[in-house]
Amino acid sequence: MLNYDKVVSALAGASPDARRKNGPGYHAVTYGWLVAELVARATGKSFQEVVVEEIAAPLGVDEYWYYVPQDERSRIAKLFPHINPGGLNWQFTSAILAHVAPTRGLAEAAMPDGFDALVRDPQVHDAVMPGWNGVFSADAVAKMYGAIANGGMIDGQQFLKPDTVQKSTTIADRDRDYVLAIKPNWSLGYHKPVLASRSQPQNAIGHYGVGGSGGFADLDTGLSLAFVTNRLGSSLTALGDLRLARLGAAALSIAQNWSDL
User: Fold this and answer.
1) Global pTM?
2) What pLDDT digit, counting tens, does each position of 58-87 carry?
3) Domain enclosing residue 120, as ranges
């Protein structure tokens, strides 16, 4: 998995999954390589170059990496603890879930053997694995979502065309995802943010990752929020972090009350 060329070659040579005809299938780990290689072939530049030129530099943020520069690595927070769903061994849990029909797709796509150890290996920062090894600050992620939340504008500058924002936020598929076994209502890689509140935002997109980090943009209020953590999960949710849902609910409530003044 640390060899970018081998992974993209394997993906290019793989046979299409027949289940794709019945609905979307979440590429929990491989999505990043698929996007990165398409970007590289379309632009003639490396994925890292495009990220800097098209996202990080225009936003004026530094902490937005998929390959982390050597002189910045001392700033990376150490990840802890191991990802052990329910306190069980990662490999054991993956094997059990793979034998249960509703969770088989998730185990196959999101819980590869050795993944829990790999995410804590310093070698991942030498590789380009855009599906999961990004290193960001909360400010950098929130600023990216801020442009989406405000019609493409950020700090008085046009970062995205309004049409691009519209396409990014329009739900592309409402079918059941055969990997996640739910209906995420995907919109070009984003899903609806889940908040710890009775009502959920209707005009918002975001993405939550394994371990609990994530962010979202609410287009009705112009709010963007990001939460990054080096604690992979919690005692209740080994693969997520309820603090993101709670912070999101509190922030959105404040933004809605402010807009009503």
Assistant:
1) 0.90
2) 999 999 998 899 999 999 998 876 666 666
3) 4-11+18-260
